[in-house]
Design goal:
The protein is mainly α. Among the domains are: 23-84, no CATH class; 87-131. Helices cover 67% and strands 0% of the residues. The protein contains nine helices and no strands. 2% of the residues are buried.
Length: 162
């Protein structure tokens, strides 16, 4: 019994030591001035980010000074709209990206060409297409909770009513 208690105490000590030793992800104020300048569009949401996302963006900030001016401009262009997205919009964007990555290179090329053709359309025509697409979008039905459909659904056929 004493050995079991000692083993448990040792395990708890090691576990808590590992947790305490885990690197704490910096809050916004803990970033250095250069990191804050580079990552400024992310400032409002920084403290809400997961540790993994913070590491990713800190890595971008560390690589930023070595980037060409064109690469830096691209990072800035992409970061600002991304920072304005809600968490749900970001999640949806990541999902779309993963879906696109699974497509064959030929299909991705075709989609890119279609997108570029769309972007070349006049603004009025793009708005019209967007309105048509929105009007044509089917209304999604909510799924019933498991078990609720059997109780709440009316009998639709004579056989089901019996």
């Amino acid at each position: 019994m004493a050995k079991a208690l000692l083993a448990i105490a040792l395990w708890l000590f090691v576990s808590f030591s590992a947790i305490a030793a885990a690197p704490k992800q910096p809050s916004w104020v803990e970033l250095n001035r250069e990191q804050q300048q580079i990552l400024a569009p992310l400032a409002p949401d920084w403290n809400k980010f997961s540790a993994r996302r913070k590491r990713k963006w800190i890595g971008v900030a560390e690589r930023y000074p070595a980037m060409t001016p064109e690469e830096q401009a691209k990072v800035e262009r992409k970061m600002q709209p991304w920072a304005r997205l809600s968490p749900d919009e970001r999640r949806a964007a990541r999902k779309r990206y993963k879906t696109l990555q699974k497509l064959s290179p030929g299909k991705r090329r075709s989609l890119r060409e279609q997108w570029e053709a769309y972007l070349r359309l006049p603004e009025a025509q793009r708005k019209q297409l967007a309105a048509e697409a929105k009007a044509a979008k089917p209304v999604r039905k909510r799924r019933a909770k498991p078990g609720a459909s059997a109780q709440a659904a009316p009998a639709s056929t004579p056989a089901a009513a019996e």
